[in-house]
Design a protein that fits this description.
The structure is a single chain. The chain has helices at 2-23, 26-35, 54-62, 75-84; strands at 44-48, 67-71. The protein is mainly alpha-helical. The protein is globular, with a radius of gyration of 13 Å.
């Protein structure tokens, strides 16, 4: 089962996720706005299901003194995030 889910998100990266980084996505934007007031420099944040790290990157830029960790089931998403963030 995990392999099927991971494969789905690997494909999702290719089909849509990169466009979210370029064009934005209202759901991801809403998630970032919801979390931002809870974070401060010195915080430790785990972004579970981080995808390609859009929210993690935003939090890291806004709070450079925070530790932001992204976790995702898709190795392709994590690799993309490592290369681009």
């Amino acid at each position: 089962m995990t392999t099927h889910v991971s494969t789905y998100y690997d494909e999702f990266l290719r089909r849509r996720m990169v466009a979210y980084r370029v064009d934005g996505n209202p759901r991801i934007e809403a998630a970032a706005r919801l979390v931002e007031p809870l974070v401060k420099n010195g915080s430790a944040v785990a972004d579970i299901g981080c995808g390609i790290g859009i929210v993690a990157e935003r939090l890291g830029k806004r709070f450079p003194g925070a530790q932001i960790i992204g976790v995702d089931i898709s190795p392709c998403n994590i690799e993309y995030a490592r290369r681009t963030i």
